[in-house]
Structure of GntR family transcriptional regulator:
Amino acid sequence: MEEIRVGGMYFSLDLSLPLYEQVLEQVRSSIAKGEIALGDKIPSVRELAQALKINPNTVMRAYQELEREQLTETRRGQGTYITSDIAKVDLIRYRVADKAIEEFLSKMTGLGFETPEIDKLLRIKRGEAHE
Amino acid sequence: MEEIRVGGMYFSLDLSLPLYEQVLEQVRSSIAKGEIALGDKIPSVRELAQALKINPNTVMRAYQELEREQLTETRRGQGTYITSDIAKVDLIRYRVADKAIEEFLSKMTGLGFETPEIDKLLRIKRGEAHE
DNA sequence: TAAGTGTATTAAGTGATATAATACACTTAA
DNA sequence: TTAAGTGTATTATATCACTTAATACACTTA
């Protein structure tokens, strides 16, 4: 899986998910991890599209979702910038995490696993010694 | 969200995911949780389709995947039965769980969370009243 | 003015999903 | 033997999400 570096971020696309979702997730991840600084400019729609060899409309879709989440601010004619408001970043981080946790626990419960065993499986997966 | 009882199992379909995936997941969950006994017969393709008001081909697709996973055995002319081999059920249970755990941890890591905080968030989520 | 921004529109193609209508081989029970 | 109920296969059709393509427009900056 080829990894492409654009504007301080790394992208790696495949066919497992919609392209716009992958772009969205990878930018969001870069922001959450602090790999790209608050207030920084991210690549233009056209630049990123060209680098990733996908259509500008597809990049647009990802960028629009980022702005809806208030993770970015767009200035017409200038470009798209990461928000400078760290509170907004944190809010999104926890909101997305909360959803992931909910889905995870729901899935495990659906498989008949309960708290102690879920914790045990998590520890095993991390390579930790168990109980 | 309407809940429909068919052949000892409960089904609840919506538009958030493909129908065949929802049917597949809900039968798998019933088996994993032991809500339906090993060796039991599950509803016929036509019966389930009629009860859920979906196309028989859609049910077929779910049933074929269940058989590929060896969670069910089909006897031509008779019907579809839950496997009697508890080892197979457990294998699938842990395989699916492992995938869920991997995806969950990967998502949380992508958001910049590490082990201690992930555990903390899990504890918080369980302390809340949900569902 | 020219180049680079974000944004909008229209058109087209592809693939997954779902439905519909039929048909066939098999099993069971009447 | 027959009829009804199984799983299974096939073909056709429709819809929708996703993606690409080609333009066009308004704005900002150098």
Notes: Residues 87-126 of chain A form one domain. The interface with chain B takes residues 25, 28-29, 32-34, 93, 96-98, 100-105, 107-108, 110-113, 115, 119, 121-122, 125-126 of chain A (CB under 8 Å). Residues 44-47, 60, 63-64, 74-80 of chain A lie near DNA strand C (CB under 10 Å from a C1').
